[in-house]
Amino acid sequence: MNYNHDSRLTTHDSRPPTNDSRLTTHEFRSWVEIDLDAYQHNFKALADRISPQTRIMQIVKADAYGHGALEIARTALDYGAAFLGVANADEGALLRYYGIKEPILILSPSLLSEIPYILENSLMPTISDHEFASALNELASKNYPVHLNIDTGMGRSGAELSQANELYELCKSLPNINIQGIFTHFAAAENDQEYSQFQISLFQKFLDSLPELPEYIHSANSSAIINLTDSPGNLVRFGALTYGFYTDNSQRNVIDLQPVLKFKSRISQIKTARKGDYIGYNLTYKCKHDLNYAIIPVGYADGYDYLLSNLGKVLHKKAILPVIGKVSMDMIAIDLTATLNAQAGDEITLLGKSPNLRVEDVSALYKGSPYELLCQTGRRAPRFFYKEDELISTAPLLRREFVSSDYNDAKLNRIIEAAMQQRMQGSQIADFVYQDILKNIFSDQDNNVHFRHDFQHSIDFSIADDPAKQDYWLTRTSLSFRKILSADSFCIACANNEDNLNKYFLEPDVEYRWLLDESLALSPDSFQLISARINDIELYSSTRIVNNCLEITCYHEKLEKLIDQEVTFEIKTLTWYPRSFHQLTVYITGITHKLDIEFTYPASLQMENIIPILAGKNKFPQLMQTPTSTSLSSPHWLFPSSGIIFVYYLQPE
Ligand SMILES: *Cc1c(COP(=O)(O)O)cnc(C)c1O
């Protein structure tokens, strides 16, 4: 494989080009592993405890408690969850952006200003007051589904009980609102039976007072499924327990939960301290004896809580080692006394499955919350998702994703600029940028983007029979792609200087452009359309010279009926390419999905370099070479101004 890239590009990216964008954990300072089998185990263990008629809502707020909302949502839906629960409209919109179609409930109260966004993304808001209900009714179309939240003693969001009936009546009277569900939330399902029973009775009393019940009633969070088996409802909200941590020690004997998340890092440095030396900020750890210790490149900025200073425990091979000194922003120190043969690069587990490393155990060291510790974990870490011990997907380091409507040129330029600089440094960032550009093209603009699908382009050089054309390759080109037809004719342009041709790059009706050698006359002798077809229709063509360009208009009266439909274009031409040239460039002028380019030539032509200037997901397309051909393909989206330069020389005969 002889890609030519300049040396700045090669220094970082010495891996062979690959279409497999999955990464390995080896390259990272810290990373999170998500065990979807453990998640499935927990999901089933909980689902086994509810009636088969009861529906399940998987709560994926806060990026699924730090586990990755998209993968958890997909997995939950696979296992039979009927609903997803998120904290706000942004979280819901992101799932919609990724194509999740199932009902999504926003659990927290939304702002009035978020209503259009909620409607656009078909999210279900929770209603807690009159004002929101009325405003929603104004903007929603008929029977928009909502859930009412009733505060039975949580003292957080939800309608106060004294106003709950009034809110119910109001919502019933509003034509555009359909109460699909009513719910309440427990303040202490995991450890306060008495208070929870009090909440249950208030909720039950409210439900009994209603003239009719909506389709769904729900109250149980995941702890309630274990601790409050009589909580009312035909829908339950799966949260904490599905992520594999106990919210109360009493649950350990009742249900087997497996931690889903592991947080890992590596030893970055090994050091020795003498008796009396201090480790870390503010001299909080003084060595009682000589010791070896290691620096781990994870600190509170990575989510390893500051309160774990002098308290944290980590795992190296089979040894549990203490954190010594304060947790800094970017590092911790661990005492290596209890382990053998520690080396820089060794894996360290900060959160995981072994008893001392479960998130409930680690957060208990500082009397913290396991919920919080999970949510903050791995802020600088990519995530790796495993199913049946296979890596099935990854979420990038820069996974702070958003669906933005405030793109402007300056912002987009910054993104592209950053992409250019960063592409060589990591496929992750390129991936992120690629997603962002696609997002800009498809979701933030209207969806009226005309792109080409399955773009196939072949170019064939052969030796000319005509003695007058000995200085040229006889060149056959063939092009095919699918596209939405926008008019009953299109144009093919051929110019013999670049300036003249450039004008045609911006013309939407020009489907193909060719640059002819300057010494050749603009005439059908030097550039000939062999055939132009749309679907199976052979098109008529007419050729004229306009603005020093050969313009071939292709048309057929049958095309009119195909306008706005996706059709297959096929264009074949015959022309001449100077033998004295040493390169051939193929450009992609529009957004293109899936690309195949094939260049064939006599064996005397030696391919020296293939320079991809592809703006898309991968820098390198797949490449296949034989002595007389080079082909490239990319299964992904490619952006305009992409191309390939073939550089070759001729062997002397
Ligand atoms: C977060 C949340 C849940 C999930 O609770 P867990 O304790 O994690 O099971 C359920 N319902 C509501 C309203 C929530 O906000």
Q: How does this model look, in words?
A:
Strand 3, helix 5 (89-97) and strand 4 form a beta-alpha-beta unit. The strands form six sheets. Strands 12-15-18-17-16-19-11-1-20-21 form a ten-stranded mixed β-sheet. The protein folds into four domains: 37-253, Alanine racemase (TIM Barrel), CATH 3.20.20; 261-381, Lyase, Ornithine Decarboxylase, Chain A, domain 1 (Beta Barrel), CATH 2.40.37.10; 407-441; 452-650, Immunoglobulin-like. Helices cover 22% and strands 34% of the residues.
Could you write a compact summary of the structure shown?
With 653 residues, the chain is of the alpha/beta class. The chain contains 15 helices and 36 strands.
